[in-house]
């Protein structure tokens, strides 16, 4: 399956759905992340947030695309929609992850708005939380007990953000996973709001079909 | 996988999620429906709604349990929760379907309330609509193009309800599936609100594992 | 009574409230539609969406105004508000119809935002759904049993949109009317969210008064 | 037109929609109010709240029915629904007014729940606010500039409630009408939430038709 | 200031607002907790949940009242309201804490409903979350960095609930405080929804006045 | 304590929270208001709205800052956020008041959006209503019985707005305060929605501590 995750800045995708993307990777899905800006405004001491993001993508085992917009000024209209449209087309994505609709950061809101517009024909669009999200009421939970550690590792690649007093607090990230897990009746979870989720009740049988055919020919 | 669907009266489960249950049956899941009342108040000309429900369950290929409550007086407290608890335990259900929370029919509301309470430890609880549901905003869509016909067939077993001027209007049921389908970016769908959905990203791989092992040994 | 309906692109007004406008026309109200863009981005094979819209307006029996904005870039601020203000003033509208607030298409959202701002002094502002609307919870229902056929006819004027694989699916439009009808306790309906509805309890008596006076003097 | 308004206690209907009922009366509609309890718990110094309610009904020019339930214990299930069903049938009501769904007083909530259930086939169900209503977001406004005075007069019939320190504060009632009016873009209004409103776009023409016919034959 | 916290079962108040009550105690407020049932259904191996609750109340430094209702059957009507009314009157409470409105446990919902009804004249009513709460969107945050440890200590008094596999998971409680803290822009917080909060902008000056007078007379 | 109130146009802050700011002033807090535009579009007969605002600020006893944006075109992105950031930094504000999120006036919405973004680290952000606010559900109430008169006085400084037929209706402002008061269980109130409120339970004790120490040493 093809998966696309769209975030506003370096680290947003990892924060919101990093451990879930690692589950996709583990099951053999092809995952691409699209980062709308290079995060220039959050730069610290000349560290390159682009390099940090490239390193994190490598750790996650996902492809990386850049939106090329200016940090603080992500548009939510045709310019941004076109960029995401192209990423959907290039990857053949069936599932799209993006920011939640209610977020006090305007780049996050604009990214969410443009992504949902670009995903107009996709059956599954899930929206994740970041520290600036408001009124987030997740209903979809993904078990991340096995991938939370690697998510925290990928976040550490964003060194400029996790340094003392930086905006990313790994302890809070872990507490959040534990809290969302208790809501989802499991231990650690990432939670999502669904713009819509096409729930594929055929998958196990479908997945088995080719394998069985292969077995039969064995 | 074990699936439990809880409805207030004969025909409620078929109306709300009949075509989805047929998808579960088709992929080999074990499905049980629990009907809280025998629908005495909706009886027409001495037709037995229990017999109608039994026939519909046979058509769907699901097991049938009765809650034994009085039509119009389904409780939402410990008495009802215990009955549903027993059904969850007896079936080993991991997924529970029930009425939506906002519904003008009190038996529907009570069934929803007691079901969600009884499902306190289940990772997946989905809620369906009926004609008396209000403010329903589905986010989960199941493709029912292949099972809608059989759903309508099962509804026809509830003869007392689908006769001229009866409360179930098959034409409206089909229009609803078409409308929910267009919302879910497919042709025909049943839509659900999620109290919570534990989204199992491991399933395809897990399903394939034994098959591949078998193939390897072939 | 003067009625103004504001849509983003050719066909939006017909999709959202075409059958209701036909009810207004039938009762003698003067109806104007304002289309914010000429729908250039949705053009197919050189067909003119402007000509299509003019033909549809003629079929509906309504006046047509153009907003003159670029497809994909409808503003939601003073520029757009001024255009709608002028339409309100020129028509003397007391009732305004426009897009719902929650819609994944940005032109729809911008049109809704600007229309509600421009309607700041009107007692009645109703908002309609289109295929890209989200979280729509109608509370106002208009019986369209007698005008649904003519609505579908007007939509067929938008030939570029209803061709095979086009964005407008007439079958889905009819299913929606049937579904909204069942929610509104009638057969076919268009549903609306109300920003506000000034419910005129004086109208029948007021309408009859002059007639009766005339009769008496007859 | 036949109108039914259902309130939990003496004075609730007057508080919530008294001035609107006076508009109905003025246009020739037949109005009935159904009061579920006699308000025994709110009695002061042996004053009869039943007599007060009878006097208020006379002032309003409406018929009065009693539900016969115990103050503080209005049921929301079949017992209450049956009583309201009977009132709907006896009056032939097409429009039903009742309490809003969110109200901290349980008799109000139960009355709202049972009324909405009983109104399952009516096209128009409007819900009003009282001082214990929460999260009320009216979208329907009725102009009560001409009837607010008479509403306050009818409330004064409930002498036990408007005495100093009583629960009904006429000054607050008037402030509320002014505030709801400013929301509805008029001077004084009663505001309503709509469970659903069947908006009759045929009425003026229909109302005029017989009169014109009569005039023509004059 | 007088504070009343109402919970359904032993441990609910500690879970929901234990650390906040400790802040009240620390500033000299008189705090009473009212526990509606003795929690018989949650008993383990004959341990007395009443004794556990008494011990926890002692640790918190608060007074304890019992509602005397049966576990699983807390009423939400006049019987429960009367008990809470009496607690409000006896303590002179100006602030009331209780369960959130949306909770899958019916005793929690009933306690919330009855408490909000009983608090009809209080200016401040805050509602807390427990593990069975749904759709909780806190807006009021209390800094509990200094009292979280003592809250966990009080929860440990409920030995029957915190044993291995018990319903109270102290690790999850701490994670929740950390997560709510990050939402409230502090380190550790308890979050509340406000039915209403009368925000007293006079307090600092008022509080200082007598102290200064005393100082002057020193 | 340092308080910052941000409004779009001259008079918005007074309308929304003028009486509350007067409570802050009365208790010794330092209050600054930031007005994003000079309100050019609302000018009447050459009256200067800037002079009116300066006079109102003087009456309120607060400092005044100007945002310098064009009336009708307040941005909601980095340009506006920077201006508000500077005001937060310059005043050391711990509490920020601004417009509610749902408002039909785009300058109000933009001001709210930018203010909430700029307040990303503040523990308390409260949002007020104006006549164009929609769906406002206040939960925080401030008693303004003693300052409502002075608020109306400050509004009268905005002479161009309160003249006959002007947009500000002082009678409606007073009715609103009375209505919000009855919701908040007091006589006159301003109501607020809380983005978040850090409720400081330490203040009285903290305030008293130095005084007591001084007394002890007396």
Secondary-structure blueprint of this entry?
Six copies of one chain form a homohexamer.
Chain A: E1 2-7, H1 12-26, E2 30-37, H2 49-60, E3 63-69, H3 78-91, E4 95-99, H4 106-118, E5 124-128, E6 140-143, H5 148-156, H6 159-162, H7 170-183, E7 189-198, H8 203-217
Parallel strand pairs in A: 1-2, 1-4, 2-3, 4-5
Antiparallel strand pairs in A: 5-7, 6-7
Helix pairs in contact in A: 1-5, 2-5, 3-4, 5-7
List keywords for this structure.
7 strands; 8 helices; homohexamer; 44% helix; alpha/beta; 21% strand; 218 residues; globular; disordered C terminus; seven-stranded mixed beta sheet
Give a short summary of the structure.
6 copies of one chain form a homohexamer. The first copy, chain A, has 218 residues and is α/β, with parallel strands linked by helices.
Describe this protein's structure.
Six copies of one chain form a homohexamer. With 218 residues, chain A is an alpha/beta fold. Helix content of chain A is 44%, strand content 21%. Chain A has eight helices and seven strands, in the order βαβαβαβαββαααβα. Chain A has a seven-stranded mixed beta sheet, with helices on both faces. In chain A, β1, α1 and β2 form a beta-alpha-beta unit. In chain A, α2 packs antiparallel against α5. Chain A is globular. The first copy, chain A, starts with a strand and ends with a helix. The C terminus of chain A is likely disordered. Chains C and D meet through α1, β6, β7 and α8 of C and α1, β6, β7 and α8 of D. β6 of chain E pairs parallel with β7 of chain F, so a sheet runs across the interface.
